[in-house]
Amino acid sequence: QLQLVESGGGLVQPGGSLRLSCTASKFTLDYDAVGWFRQAPGKQRERDLVATISRTGATNYADSVKGRFTISRDNAKSAVYLQMNSLKPEDTALYYCNSQGIWGQGTLVTVSS
To answer: Model confidence over 3-55: pLDDT tens digits?
Structure first.
């Protein structure tokens, strides 16, 4: 079964940092665009785009995370990362990666003091 697996979430204080990872099982991420999305608590079935990275490495960010988050990819490891700095309470959400129409199960990020 084709699968994406997210990891790296956790509890962090405001102003802190986390790095999320997205890896693929039984397929490769090397040749397709990958996006990170998030679903805030209480927002059922509404996933907001956070960042995308194209096959060639071009990136795009939601206005709310520009300057704080960085998406990158390591094709040698077939992985995509989301470095999140200067985290705010409003960044609290379940974070998902998506590629080729495939979603992972998500990793929870909680920003709280």
So the answer is: 899 999 999 999 999 999 999 887 777 788 999 999 998 877 789 999 999 99
Chain-centre distance for alpha carbon 71: 8
Secondary structure (H, E, C), the chain: CCEEEEECCEEECCCCCEEEEEEEECCCCCCCCEEEEEECCCCCCCCEEEEEECCCCCEEECCCCCCCEEEEEECCCCEEEEEECCCCHHHCEEEEEEECCEEECCEEEEECC
Tokens of 97: 């990666």
Contact in structure between 97 and 4 (CB atoms under 8 Å): yes
pLDDT digits (tens, 9 = 90+) for 69-106: 999 999 888 899 999 999 999 999 999 999 988 999 99
The encoded tokens of residue 5 equal 């697996």
